[in-house]
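Researcher: Here's a chain I'd like modeled. Treat it as a single chain, no partners, no ligands.
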Amino acid sequence: MYQNFSLIGIETVSRTKQIIVEFSTCLNMNLKEDIVISLYERESKTPIDFDFVIEQEKIIIDLDTWPIPNTDYILAITGIKSILDEPLPNNIKKRISFESNVESKASIASPVQFQEVSNLIVEIKEDTDNTSLVNRYYIEISTDNAFN
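Model: Modeled as a single isolated chain. Structure tokens:
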């Protein structure tokens, strides 16, 4: 049974600083020079540096640096053909965003865990190396003793 050549999905992987673009059929690996990929910040049009490889049904984009988290970027790809030289019916132009890869070393200094308080004031102590990378924290509070 013949399967239409199409885009299946686009995934961002912060751990490896990659974007994985997956297709329904194997790609023609001999036509890498025909594929044109651009990745840029949507508002400022600032480009992101990367390299890419073709592996079977995937294009793996290796980013030099991780883009600004929670910011819109545009990924555009043209010139893609299947192993049967069938061109992708539409060029790819997708808006994507990246999750934060910062693992903050912040800890709650006060109140201490399980301390009962009548007037809550939270003090956050953080590692100075991460200060410029973190712009917000989320604090979860519960009155349930089983809360973790």
